[in-house]
Write a structure and sequence with these properties.
4 copies of one chain form a homotetramer. The first copy, chain A, is of the alpha/beta class. Chain A folds into 2 domains: 80 residues, ACT domain (Alpha-Beta Plaits); 195 residues, 3-Layer(aba) Sandwich (Rossmann fold), CATH 3.40.50.170. Helix content of chain A is 33%, strand content 30%. Chain A contains 8 helices and 13 strands. In chain A, strand 6, helix 4 and strand 7 form a beta-alpha-beta unit. The radius of gyration of chain A is 21 Å and the shape is globular. Chains B and C meet through helix 1 and strand 2 of B and helix 1 and strand 2 of C.
Amino acid sequence: MPQAKPEEAILLLSCTDRKGLVSRISDFISSHEGNIVDLDEHADPDEGMFFIRVAWDMNLFTLPKDLVESAFAPIADKFEARWKIRFSGTRMNIAIFVSKYDHCLQELLWRQRLGEFPVNISMLISNHPDLEPLAKQDGIPFYHFPITPGNRQEQEEKEIRLLQESHVETIVLARYMQVLSSSFVCRYPERIINIHHSFLPAFIGGNPYKQAYERGVKIIGATSHYVTSEIDEGPIIEQDIARISHKDMVQDLIRKGRDLERIVLARALRYHSEHRILTHGNRTIVFD
Amino acid sequence: MPQAKPEEAILLLSCTDRKGLVSRISDFISSHEGNIVDLDEHADPDEGMFFIRVAWDMNLFTLPKDLVESAFAPIADKFEARWKIRFSGTRMNIAIFVSKYDHCLQELLWRQRLGEFPVNISMLISNHPDLEPLAKQDGIPFYHFPITPGNRQEQEEKEIRLLQESHVETIVLARYMQVLSSSFVCRYPERIINIHHSFLPAFIGGNPYKQAYERGVKIIGATSHYVTSEIDEGPIIEQDIARISHKDMVQDLIRKGRDLERIVLARALRYHSEHRILTHGNRTIVFD
Amino acid sequence: MPQAKPEEAILLLSCTDRKGLVSRISDFISSHEGNIVDLDEHADPDEGMFFIRVAWDMNLFTLPKDLVESAFAPIADKFEARWKIRFSGTRMNIAIFVSKYDHCLQELLWRQRLGEFPVNISMLISNHPDLEPLAKQDGIPFYHFPITPGNRQEQEEKEIRLLQESHVETIVLARYMQVLSSSFVCRYPERIINIHHSFLPAFIGGNPYKQAYERGVKIIGATSHYVTSEIDEGPIIEQDIARISHKDMVQDLIRKGRDLERIVLARALRYHSEHRILTHGNRTIVFD
Amino acid sequence: MPQAKPEEAILLLSCTDRKGLVSRISDFISSHEGNIVDLDEHADPDEGMFFIRVAWDMNLFTLPKDLVESAFAPIADKFEARWKIRFSGTRMNIAIFVSKYDHCLQELLWRQRLGEFPVNISMLISNHPDLEPLAKQDGIPFYHFPITPGNRQEQEEKEIRLLQESHVETIVLARYMQVLSSSFVCRYPERIINIHHSFLPAFIGGNPYKQAYERGVKIIGATSHYVTSEIDEGPIIEQDIARISHKDMVQDLIRKGRDLERIVLARALRYHSEHRILTHGNRTIVFD
C-alpha cells in the first residue's frame, strides 16, 4: 500500500507565453514557504502558449488552504490565464454512467478499491438495471433512468438534479450507450470523460469493431476523450492499441478491445482526477 | 549470414471451404516425395473461405519445377481456387518509385544489401532526379520521368514499357508523391505496394501528420497497403504505431513517423516477396 | 456473446520431422469425414522437429469421441510422437492458488464469467483466508491451507488429495506466494502455470520490482511460464512489457506491473486451456 | 526541414532537494531577461534529490554566453549541486567506434545527414578496415586501430590522443566488439554510450540472441547505456523490445534485433546530445 503522502496543492494554468512566468509562479510558492514537489511546463512555440502544472507541499505553507486561490488570483489575472488550484486531499466527486457492459465499470471499481484514484464515486447512473448488483457490492448508490425516444430531456433533467445535489464534478461514461444532449454536455465542459472503442478519428460512430474488421486493419485501438457536443470529436486524453491478425473475427476484436477500453479509460480518469490535464482548442496537454 | 536454404516451392491458394482440402494438397506433395517445411492455414467461418500457404522442399521432389504447376492445376480447378506456385530460388523483380524523400528507399537498399528480401531491384523510377546517386551507388538503373499536369499518361506509358521489358512483377512506392492513374494501377493488381504515413483509415489524403497534430491524437501510425484505384483504400498489409505527446510538434511527428514508414514498408515488402499474402475482398491474410 | 460453436477435436502432436506427416494426419481426418477448421504447423530446421495443432469439426465425423484416440494411436506410434487429442466441449478442470493479492484472481474470475476460458474453476486454494469472499461470490469452493515452516509437505499432500478427487488437470498460481515442493511440481508437468512479475530471465526471485527500480530499467515486464522444479526457469508461455520512466517509484512499478501480470496470466491460461501449447526442451510452441 | 531555432541555453542540475530551488533558478533567468522555453523537474521523494533541466532563449538574454556559467556558479555552489550549462548552437564533438556490423553506424550517419543530432562526427575509429568506405562517403576521418591480445593499452593510448586533439566529448560504441579498458572508460565518465543487444539485465555478455533463443523468451530487446568499468552494468539510457515467436530462429532474432539496436542507440544519442540526461547512482533521469 502506498504511504499517505502529505497534502499537496496543484496549480494548472495556461496563458499566452511571456517572460518570467515560471519565476513569478515559483516565487509565489517559495515566498509562502512552499516546496515544489513536481513541476511540468510546456511552451508551444507555434501557438505562443504556456502551460504549467505545479504541485507543492502544503505542510509548511504559510497560507491556509482557503486563502490560496485568492492570494494567487492577482498573478493569474495579470497573465490573463485560465487556471485552477486543487488540493490532493480533496477527493473529486464523480458519477459513472453505464448501460449493460460491465468491463469498464469493473475495472474502475477494482482500481478504486485499491486506492488508485483520488475520487469518490458518488453514484452510478444507468439506462438499464443490469449492473445494479455491482454498485451495491461496493455500497454505491445506483439510479436507473430508462431512456425512450421521447423522454431523454426529462430524464437528463432528473439526472442533473441528482448530480448537483451530490456535488458531482466529473462524469465518466463507462460504455454508456446513450448520446447525451448538447445542453447536458455544455453543463460539464471538460468534465465528461468517454471511452470510444476505436482508434479515433478512425471508425467514428457505431460498431467500430465491425468497421475495423471490414476495413481489414492490422491494429485496433481505444480512445478516451472529453465529450463535446460533436460526437467522438472532443479532445483526446489517451489512446492505446492492440495488434490483430486475419485470424481475428469481429468477436475477437470485441474481446481484445475490451482490454484496451478498460485500461485506456482508467488511465484517462487517473490523469483527470490527479489534475494532470489542460486543454487548448481541441488538444490536451497531459502532464503524466 | 543466413545459410543458403534448399529451394522450396510455395503454394498460395484460396477457395470456398470444404472437406479434404488440406488432405488433397498434402497428398499431392507427399505423393511426389516432397517434405512440407511450413504450412499455415486459415478458415474463415463467417465467409466460408479457406486460405493456405504451403512450402515444401524441392530437393527430393520428383517433379521438375516447370511441371509442378500443370500437375497441380487439376486439383486447384476442382476446388475452383485462386492460386499460384512460386519457387524460393526465383527472385522477384521489383521497381521502386520515389520522389525526393530518401528514408524509405535507403531502408530498402540497406536491407537488400543484407539479403533480407528475395528480390532483384530492377530499377528506380522517379519524378525527380535527386535520388539518382543512391541508385548509382548500388548499381541500380535510375529513370527520371518528370510529371507535369499534362504528361502523366504519356510518361506512364513509357514507364510501363520499361517495366515490361525488365519483367518487373511488383512496384514499391517508397514515398512516391504522384498519384498513379487507374489504368496503370489496374495493370498491377495486388502488385503495387504503397506506404501511407498515417494509421489508415484515419487521415486519408494529404499531410496526414498535420491532420494528426490538429486532431490531437496520442499515437501516430503508418500503413502499407496494396494500391487500388481508390486512394488509400486498398487492402492493408501492415501497420505500426508510435506514441506521441503534447510536446511533439508537426516536425516531431514527421521525424518519428519516418521511422515507422520505413519499418512498415520493409515488412510489407518482405511478406509480399516471400509470397506470404493472400487477399479476400479488401482484406489481407498475411501468413507471417 | 459468442455463438455456440460446433464441437471440435484438437490434436497436439510433436515428433521428429519426416516426409508425409501432414498428409498422414489430414488423411486420417478426411477419411472419417472430418473438416479441418484450423491447422498450424511448425518445423524446426535446427532441431529437425515437427510440431502441429489441428482442429477439426466433430459434427459429421464418423468416429465417436471415445474411439478417436484409439483410432489415431497407430499413426502416432509409427511417428514415435508425443501427442494428445482433446475436445472443445470438454472443459478443463483447474484450481487457482492464491495468497493475498487479488488482481490476478479477479481478472481470471471476470473473464471466466464472460466465458473467455473453456475451463471449470474447481476450487481456490490459499495459504491465507483473505480471498475467500471472492470465491464465494462465484460459488467456487475455497480451501485454506496455512503453510508454516514445518507443515508444507503435509499440507501439499492434503491439497493433492483434493485436486485428485476433483479431477483437477491444471493449476494456476495467481500470485501464490509459496514455493511448491519438487515432488508436488513433478506430479503436474506442464500443468502448473505461474505468473512472475518480471521480464524473465531478468530479476529472478524475490522483489523483482525493487530489483528493476534499482537497476534503473526503462521497461518492466511480466512472464507466465510452466512451473518446473527450478524456480523461475520453466518454459515461458507469454510475456509482455510496459514502459516506465524516472518518475516511477517502486510503488508505481507495482501498480503498472499489476496490469501486466493479470493480462499475461490470462493470455497464458487461454492458450493452455485451448490446447495451443506444445513444449520442446525448455521452449514453448504457442499456436495462437 | 526544421526551421533554425533561436539559440538556447540549457542547464542540467541535480542536488539535494530543498525549498526555493525552482524559484532561485527561474529568478536567475528572468532577472537577465531570459524566457524559459522548456523546464522539466523531477524530485525523488525516496532519496530526497532534486533534478532539473531548463532551457531558455538566449536572444534577449542580457548576459553574454561566456559569462553565463560564472554568473550562475554562486547559486549552484550554495546548493552543492552537480551541474552544467550548454548552448544549443554548440555542436557536441563525437567519435563513433565500430567493428564490422554497419547497421548502427548507417543509422547514425543517415540521421546525421537529416540534421537529427546536434553533433559533429569528428571521426570513426575501428579495429577493422571494413567500414572505411561509409566514413569516406560522408567525409568523416576514419582511423584503423587493430586490436591484438597484446596491444590494447598501446592502441587505446593512441586513440585517446586522437580524441583529445579533436576535442571529442562523447564516444558512441556502435556495435564495437572490443572491451575498453577501465582506464579508458574512467576518462569518459557518462560520455561513452554503448548499445547492448539484449534487454538488460537479461543476457549480459556474449551472444545474447543465442541466449534469448535458448531461454525461449517471447520478447527480445536492446539497451543503450553509459559504459562503466563493469561490463553491461552502467546506467541505462533507453530500451525497446520486439515480440518474437517459436517461428523465429537465432537468425531471425538477429534480424529483428538489428532494427531495435539502431533505433535505441539513435534515441540514446539524441537524448545525450541534447543534454537531456542526468544520472544518480546507477540510474538515469531522461527529460524527453
